[in-house]
Protein 1
Amino acid sequence: MADVAVVGGGAIGGWLAAGLAAAGHDVTLCVRTPVEQLFVDDVEVPLRITADPTEVGPVPWVLVATKAQDTASAQPWLDRLLGGDSTVVVVQNGLDHEERVQARSVLPALAYAAVERIGPGRVRKHSLGWLEVPDTDRGRAFAELAGELKVNTVADFRTSAWRKLYANSAANPITALTLSRMGQLITGELRDLAARVLRETIEVSVADGADVDADAELATVLERWASMDPAGGSSMLYDRMAGRPMEHEYITGAVVRYAERHGHPAPLNHTLLTLLRALDQNH
């Protein structure tokens, strides 16, 4: 079994730490605000929790599970946790994960998990969830390490990153702006708006080289939403409800930036980004 550190004590960080602990690893959860224990679905997770970077040393695997906009806050931890053979697994939304951290070995990862932080040291799962990583030597090594934490390796990670962004580009901003849960997003006018945002994002990804069928991708996302817990939400919704900064620059902002780079129109994403930026400024 390996020594593993998870940086970030939010919903995804707690879910990852619990999965790796269940696989038998010695897990250290690195948090900003001290808590004594971690509970996932009211079950205590056996691990070590610290809020002090001076209490940790190099480990083979470090998972960064902060929100993308908070990546810089992970650097004091990385300065202590990284050794010559360490790999940083960046588990965040958006594109271009490798550009966010300074490390010799970086493995980008996508989390498909409906999880919610319901209080300090407490996480609720709305689905079992899984990760996707590139089909490389490091990716396969991490998938083997993860054990019960399901990890899929994919040949075309860039297309997979866009696929993850499809759902996020619609669900995150719309639920955050309207304070809606998934049950409201999959019916009526909000569903129609979400479908149009999805279509626009898919078209931008194709302009960027994503190897997808637009109609099939749209149908897949809508079908997945219909099967989700209607009481669940999005990470951006949870951040707004908690008064935390939102990650719109790495979700909607990424779509807008690549649309501009390729000269492809994205008026709906641009409108959502404008509204989200204004909402952030008013907090």
Protein 2
Amino acid sequence: MKRALITGVNGMDGSHLADILLDKGYKVYGVERRSSVKNRTNTNHLGDNPNFEWVVGDLSDQNSLLRCLKQTEPDEVYNLAAQSFVGESWNTPEHTSDITGLGVLRMLEAIREYGTPVKFYQASSSEMFGRMVENPATENTPFYPRSPYGVAKLYGHWITKNYRESYGMFNVSGILFNHESERRGFEFVTRKITHNVAKIAMGLSTEFALGNLDAKRDWGYSPDYMEAAWMMLQADTPDDYVVATAETRSVREFLSAAFSQVDITDWERYVTIDQRFMRPAEVDVLRGDYSRINSKLGWSPKTPFEDWVRLMVKNDIYLLERGRV
């Protein structure tokens, strides 16, 4: 039985990855920080699975990561933990740099000190491209991050590659473009939209505020992207891959798709613009070219845009009906 260690297991990606690996017959260990209040909304369903276990660790403490490795003896490590909200990175740039950037270094050093070969996956981000030098972006597109989050992710990406080349480690980076699911946090624009659409449909609200409606993103579905992460660690040789859909949609288009799930077409009257939600430096368009991972590993996105938007809206209606949010 293969053993996998996942940081950020309680997040959207981490919880979906845990589901995928358990279905594949893995023993899965989920890293969470020591806390008096556990944030297990996305992982409560794993508690009774005999092949899943929580371990305590923190990306700000290298020794705790080494203890996690010694305790779990993993074949694979998936680093999905981060301060992952781009907007918040402007308010907490030092914390974002420490966890999202230097946290990767600490895990790599812990693996190196552990001494037993471990395959390592780093969740890199399309935010590293920022101001797109070319569109769509490939693995060879120059980086130009436009936020503290993007800069921190770029450090994590390069240190992963550097340790691969310097120490012969099996390290890969998935350069993930925007991806969502019904487990997305409420601070993210996609979940903010679907949650408020559900509230409006149920008569619980009449409007909500957003920032830039013209920003365009290459949006996919999180479980599809976590399948790609697993495939990267099953390859014969380590490499870095763009994971995307090669399609872009604006926030306006996302709004239209979400409201259409509750049969509302004149969505503009429910949405206001608030300057507080505008970024100091906006990334206008992000689009990725996934042809490399398609040709080398056979991966392609499976879930259409409209399908996962529908899942998100239906899930938020379900949660509201049962008083869970």
Protein 3
Amino acid sequence: MTDLLDFVSLSLLPPWCWRVAAEWLRRGDPPAVVVRRLLAGNPRDDGGNPADVPSLAADAIRRADAGSIAAIPWSAPAYPTALTTIADPPPVLWTRGNPAVLSAPGVAIVGSRAASPYGLAVAERLAADLAASGLVIVSGLARGVDSAAHRGAVSAGGVTVAVLGSGADVIYPAEHVPLARAIDAAGAVISELVPGTRPQPWFFPLRNRIISGLSRAVVVIEASEKSGSLITARCALDQGREVLAVPGNVLSGKNRGAHALLRDGAKIVESADDILEELGMPGAGPRAAGAGQGRPDAGASKGRDPVLDSLVPGEASDLDEISERSGLNAPRLLPRLFELELHGLVRRIGGGRFVRIDRTC
């Protein structure tokens, strides 16, 4: 509980503190020390007394408990490993629904809020096909492409995650309350903002790094030159994720941003197969998201897998250490760790660290 209070206190500090906080936490500084250090040097955005932050954090935890919202701090094993690799991970994720889906392989689908019927149809179809292949669809619950992607995943009986620019208990826009409930049934509605937080314009660009951070790839549909979706694409590139785009009508002006991504080297998407191929998953069949099938491939056997070889049974290693030893960068390393975790060969222990499970007996 003490750690949770400290991490919630960090989340109440100005967002520009979070990158510094992540650096200190990664080097092993206790969260309570990080909080005190940052409170001493950074005023609150709302002009309030920094000494009030712990009591505000405690209030947020009580509101979350009352609203059946799970608080997942950065140090918890349930915190998605993919997010621990970004420069400024949220100190806490407030989650409705099933937190386990946050660690499953995901693809973000983002685009225009004022999408054309073509854009909406493409988003819904791509999401349905990818969800049927076992991928989690990540988006922002906004009007237009985002909501179409969520609906497509739900209609296919798949899993989707909505990342909000408000508290997890404040659904915006309001007409998406039924959609959020449908997402909760198998997926998750999440936010880095404490429960009760109302939407503000600057929260939406901020949350885009979470959408891309949770995903192995970002697919952009109908983005104009000033679209917020391009912020998500830039975040994805900074985070080492794949960026793909759907071509569209050159006359409407709604596709200039997406076409600029294609000119800069983004892979063109005409069907879900293009995305699966880019992720190294050609021919992936329907399965429950997060459910392992069969045994690991031959490369996962002892002594032949570079990721397993880089881990010592009983000794925790973070992603930087595993990457250095295995020679794999984060975009290639994370899916492999996820697969090994599904087969019971490694275990996450929080803070983005992994330990190998000795199964020689």
Protein 4
Amino acid sequence: MQKYLNKISGPLLDRIDLHVEVTPVAFSELSSAQQFEKSDRIRERVIKAREIQAARYQESEGVYANAQMSSKQLKEICVISTAGQNLLKVAMEKLNLSARAYDRILKVSRTIADLSSSENIKPEHLAEAIQYRSLDREGWGA
């Protein structure tokens, strides 16, 4: 698997917003009585987040989602706190991320904040977005 992944160029990986390694689910988790968020509740959150984005970009022709925002919009819409800046700086250095990955992380964190109905991007939104950059990490798929 690693040999195959090594054939994918960095610039191509940079253009993929979410990198998620899907591992087999353990029997103990499958048989657990723990309650998870229901699909209809997730659907409601997604619809609400899309409405938030539609309102945000109503004046921007051709833009209807966070993934489509321009660099200028990114600076205006994806403002993060000092704690968030520090978290992102550490991730950029440790994962050796590109400027394009930086933009992608901010856009994904804005979407995560929208799904949480949060006006601001919080450090936990950034942390979740950073974890979706798993293909940028050494040893992925090992």
